[in-house]
Specification:
Number of strands: 7
Order of helices and strands: EHEEHEEEE
CATH class: Alpha Beta
Number of domains: 1
Distance between the termini: 44 Å
CATH architecture: 2-Layer Sandwich
Largest sheet: 5 strands, antiparallel
Helix content: 10-25%
Shape: globular
Length: 98
């Protein structure tokens, strides 16, 4: 099953671990084709070694959108479930907060 992981501010150790499993097609963007079990193992490593980074994992899924995704770390974009359909909501920027 096709999967994609994008990381920002990832420590070199995490980037190296991801490069073992996945192809880095752009800086911080990794793709591969693995089973659910392997995908979950890779994502566990992102969460274990990426304490200072933010990341998103997306994978092919037989649903209306054709994919699902999870996020990790601090980011203005947060996943929101709307009647079983995953969308992205934006938190207000720090500049707009009073």
């Amino acid at each position: 099953m096709m999967l994609m992981i994008a990381v920002e501010n990832a420590p070199p150790r995490l980037r190296g671990r991801l490069a073992v499993w996945l192809l880095e097609v752009r800086a911080g963007l990794y793709i591969g084709n693995y089973s659910r079990r392997t995908r979950e193992r890779i994502w566990d490593e992102v969460k274990a070694f990426g304490e200072t980074c933010n990341a998103v994992l997306a994978w092919a899924e037989p649903n209306d959108a054709g994919f699902l995704f999870e996020t990790w770390g601090q980011n203005r974009r947060i996943p929101v479930d709307l009647d079983g359909f995953q969308l992205v909501s934006f938190l207000p920027s720090k500049d707009n907060m009073v």
